[in-house]
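Example 9 (inverse folding). The structure is encoded as follows.
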C-alpha cells in the first residue's frame, strides 16, 4: 500500500549539565572554580531525499530521539555536543503538530532542510558564576531540557495538473499516453491505488507535471471509499483536468458525474474547488451515433460556465494534442509560484509556554526567578538579538512573572537574577 501519511514522536537532545569543580594543584592553595560547560543536545532535522516517494519507513518505526549533550568536566573541559538526528522524507511532505493540525514545515520548493526541534543548550559550569562576593560558587547550570512532539507527516504530491474523475473513466490510460508514467491499469473500480506522477513534454519545451489522483466517489470528502485518502494530493495543483466517460460505457451520466465530483471537492476544500478546470470527454471512440450527442450536452452545460470541453480518446490518442496545449497555455497565465503551506506552529515558542513551575524570591536585595520554565525559556531564546529580547519581555509579561515580581515589592532599578542572567528592572 502506498504510504502517504504517518504519525511519529520526535525528541531533541537535552543539553549536558555544567560541572562544579575547583582547581586543586600544588602551590595553588585556593584554586578558583574550573567546572566546564555541558555540550549541546542534538537537533531533530528533516531533510528532503530525492530518492524517496513514500513515507513507508515511518510506518514501521514511530519514535525518533536525538542524543543528549555530554556533561561538562573538570579543568574547564567542555562536554561533547551530541549529533543531530536527520529524518529523510520525500519532497512534498508536510509536517504538522499532531494535536492542533497546524503546519510546522512544508518540505517542498526551496525548503530542503529544516530544524524542527532544537537540542537544549549545555549548562554553564561553575567557572561562570564567580563574583567578587561569591568566589567559590557551588552552583552549575543544568543543561536545557529537550523538546518533544508528536507530529503527523503528510505527503502531498507536487504536480501542476491533477487528473480527477470517477473510477474507470480513463485517467490512468490518459496519463500513460501523454507522459512517461506507467500506471497499472485494469478494468475494475479503484484500479489506481497510488497517485501516479508523469511529466508532459511538449515540443516547444512547455512541459508540466501531471498527477493521476485515484478515483473519487460520492461521499469521498466524508471518508467513504478510497478516494478521500488521496484528496490531499490535489492541494498543490494549479489546474485540474476533469476526466469523464463521455460514452457512458458503464451507464453513467457524464454531466451528473462532473457535478458530483465537484461537490466532493467543495466539501473537502472550497478553495480547491474554485481552481480552474478543463473537461476531458474521454472514450469518444466508443460513442455511437444513435440518440443525443453527449459531447454537445457537455459543451452546452459547462462552456457557458467558462469550463472548456475537449473530446478525447485515451485509446487512440485523438484530441490529446489540443487538450495538452490548451492546459499548457492556461498554466502560463496562472501564478508560477509553487503551492507551499505556510508555517503555523513554532515549536520553540509553543513549548516554552508549557505549564512548568517557577519561583520568585528575594535574596539579599536581589529578586531571583528560577525553575524549569525559566531554564527552558533562557535555553531557547537568543537575548543578543532584538527579536529574541522582545520575545523575552513578552514571555515575562504573558506568563505572569512581571506581576509576581511587582507583588513581591520590586521597584525600578532593583536587580533581577535568572540563573546566569542578571538585569535591572524598569517598567
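The amino acid assigned to each position is listed next.
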Amino acid at each position: 500500500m502506498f504510504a502517504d501519511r504517518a504519525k511519529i514522536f520526535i525528541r531533541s537532545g537535552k543539553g549536558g549539565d555544567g560541572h562544579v569543580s575547583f582547581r586543586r594543584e600544588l602551590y595553588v592553595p585556593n584554586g578558583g572554580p574550573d567546572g566546564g560547560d555541558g555540550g549541546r543536545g542534538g537537533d531533530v532535522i528533516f531533510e528532503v531525499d530525492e530518492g524517496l516517494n513514500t513515507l513507508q519507513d515511518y510506518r514501521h518505526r514511530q519514535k525518533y530521539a536525538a542524543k543528549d549533550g555530554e556533561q561538562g568536566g573538570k579543568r574547564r573541559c567542555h562536554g561533547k555536543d551530541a549529533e543531530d538526528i536527520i529524518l529523510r522524507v520525500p519532497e512534498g511532505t508536510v509536517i504538522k503538530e499532531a494535536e492542533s493540525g497546524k503546519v510546522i514545515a512544508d518540505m517542498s520548493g526551496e525548503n530542503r532542510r529544516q530544524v524542527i526541534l532544537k537540542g537544549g543548550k549545555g549548562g554553564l559550569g561553575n567557572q561562570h558564576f564567580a563574583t567578587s562576593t561569591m568566589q567559590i560558587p557551588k552552583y552549575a547550570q543544568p543543561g536545557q531540557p529537550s523538546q518533544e512532539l508528536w507530529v503527523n507527516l503528510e505527503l502531498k504530491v507536487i504536480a501542476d495538473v491533477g487528473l480527477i474523475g470517477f473510477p474507470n473513466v480513463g485517467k490512468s490510460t490518459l496519463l500513460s499516453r501523454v507522459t512517461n508514467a506507467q500506471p497499472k491499469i485494469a478494468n475494475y473500480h479503484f484500479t489506481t491505488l497510488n497517485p501516479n506522477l508523469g511529466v508532459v513534454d511538449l515540443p516547444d519545451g512547455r512541459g508540466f507535471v501531471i498527477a493521476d489522483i485515484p478515483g473519487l466517489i460520492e461521499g469521498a470528502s466524508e471518508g467513504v471509499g478510497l478516494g478521500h485518502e488521496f484528496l490531499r494530493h490535489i492541494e498543490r495543483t494549479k489546474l485540474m483536468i476533469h476526466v469523464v466517460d463521455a460514452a457512458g460505457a458503464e451507464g453513467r451520466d457524464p454531466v451528473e458525474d462532473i457535478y458530483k465530483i465537484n461537490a466532493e471537492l467543495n466539501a473537502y476544500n472550497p478553495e480547491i474547488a474554485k481552481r480552474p478546470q478543463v473537461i476531458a470527454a474521454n472514450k469518444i471512440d466508443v460513442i455511437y451515433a444513435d440518440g443525443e450527442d453527449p459531447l454537445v450536452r457537455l459543451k452546452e452545460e459547462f462552456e457557458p460556465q467558462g469550463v472548456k470541453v475537449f473530446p478525447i480518446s485515451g485509446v487512440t490518442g485523438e484530441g490529446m494534442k489540443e487538450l495538452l496545449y490548451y492546459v499548457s497555455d492556461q498554466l502560463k497565465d496562472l501564478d508560477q509560484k509553487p503551492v507551499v503551506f505556510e508555517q503555523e506552529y513554532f515549536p520553540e515558542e509553543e513549548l516554552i509556554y508549557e505549564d512548568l513551575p517557577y519561583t520568585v524570591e528575594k535574596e539579599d536585595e536581589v529578586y531571583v526567578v528560577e525553575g524549569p520554565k525559566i531554564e527552558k525559556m533562557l535555553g531557547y531564546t537568543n537575548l543578543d538579538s532584538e527579536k529574541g529580547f522582545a520575545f523575552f519581555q513578552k514571555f515575562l509579561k504573558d506568563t505572569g512573572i512581571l506581576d509576581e515580581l511587582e507583588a513581591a515589592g520590586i521597584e525600578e532599578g532593583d536587580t533581577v537574577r535568572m540563573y546566569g542572567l542578571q538585569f535591572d528592572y524598569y517598567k
